[in-house]
Fold this protein.
Amino acid sequence: MASSTTMEFEKPIAELERQIDELKKTAGKRQLSVSDEIAPLERKLDALRAEVYKNLTPLQRVQVARNNKRPFTLDYIQLAFTDFIELHGDRLYAEDAAIVGGWARLDGETVMVIGHQRGRDTKENLKRNFGMPHPEGYRKALRLMKLAEKFHVPVLTFIDTPGAWAGLGAEERGQSEAIARNLFEMSRLEVPIIATVIGEGGSGGALALGVADRVLMLENAVYSVITVEGCAAILWKDGKSPEMKERAASALRITAQDLLELGVIDEIIPEPVGGAHSNREAAAQAVHEALVRTLDDLRRYKPDKLVRRRREKYLAMGQFAE
Amino acid sequence: MAWFRKERKPRQPRREKLEIPADAWEKCEACGHTDLREKFVRNLNVCPQCDYHRRIRAADYVNILIDENSWEELDVDLKSVDPLGFPEYPQRLKKAIANAGDGDAIMSVAGTLGGMPVSLGVMDFAFMGGSMGSVVGEKIARLGQRSLERKYPLVIVCASGGARMQEGVLSLMQMAKTSALLAQLAERRVPYVSILTNPTTGGVSASFAMLGDAILAEPGAVIGFAGPRVIKQTIGQDLPEGFQTAEFLLDRGMLDAVVHRRDLKSTVGQLLRHMSGQPAASGWTSP
Ligand SMILES: [Zn+2]
């Protein structure tokens, strides 16, 4: 689950950042100019970040995707949208804070934004259940999608969840039905849908917000049918050791590049050097640019054509021999 | 059978039983009742003692649901490939084919049910735990397409532990694929009945299993999004008695009915007649 400690492979970066900070502090205290010393260090830092992030293994990407310094749905809403007003509740049972949604504007135009919401600290994660929704979360999401459809407003979703919650209440209130209903209704919603995987796309709990005309994915996000831990535990009876998790992460083909090659996503949104968490504003800007451009492209389709194309896309998914 | 091994004392079987070959006997997994296999089979593999619905194969459900000599199997040539180059997947497939046949985890059938033409899909748990990969998704999509074109009702018998991990995110997408097809079926008002058997969990339960115009389940079947073991792990305590059984789901409003195996055909037939504007089957009279 989410970790706030520095990721192992980022330690050299953190160390260099610390050195630069210290130098700046010392200089500030003594009112000295150290820009000559700092400039090469900052160049070195950029190069180091680029180097580390160029060579991330699939398992390291999982760690980046889950990192809780990474921008979450509400961060993107704040940075890439305006005029947001959150809507709550499924009108059936409860409000589920693991999914947030509401009206917002993208470049001035009204859209419906819906996404999984993780928490940065324990208190917030308690409220948001680590971004793992109950059925009422999915039913709220569907209610908002139908509301958007009613007013001919596009739906933009953000995917960022380890998976749907596996607990007593979730089962009792029909987790399966809630997810299935979203897949069914999203396949025929008569407004444009764009889904963006911003962190971890965990199985059916992610897909329940992910049936879309276009699926975008951040460079370091992952999307999988099962967690790497779960996969390693089933295959090699070891879901804990880094070696087995790495094997599972490679075998499952869960990186943005893998998914593009498999035809499951349409576009990779590049992240700033050092990952989205190293520069949230730049990440949000890249997301904003991709959403505006994609939405512009989708506007040329009439509703019936949009739905037909979306269906054809999903009906063509899969690989088999005949 | 175990009790014929030498190191164990035989359980003093009654005299006449000894004269029947050992492999003619079977034991109920639930209550331990031992009976002639033939008797189990005649009872549709429901225990005569405790009514436990034993797991049966896809072809058995075809015989239970479809009129005799009315059917043919469809899409027999669809075969799983290894799209990800997943470790040992080709070997696992080979083993599954050797053990369970080459129809993958679902059998597609065109036939009649109580005289009505239907498209029937029956999942086969014996093939890699009934896991849904690209072939299962495609077979369901084609069955649905057939139903769409001919306006024949669709019936699916579910038995699955979930998505097929070895096909990665492509197996996840089969949930969207089958659901998209069912949405089309719904818009054209073609009836769809879903029958849940033991177990129906994961990606199958969170897609076509729960989207029936009527959802039926066999008694005692375990049905849920997460499997009982996963939930137990998550919440760190034992699950309440009967949690996630068909009866539990019925009580929580998630199913239309729990139906005994011997009544499946007549129940599905009755539902389909209502939903496709056909008169009641012969034998039904007004009270
Ligand atoms: Zn029994």
Observations:
- Residues 168-187 of chain B form the longest helix (20 residues).
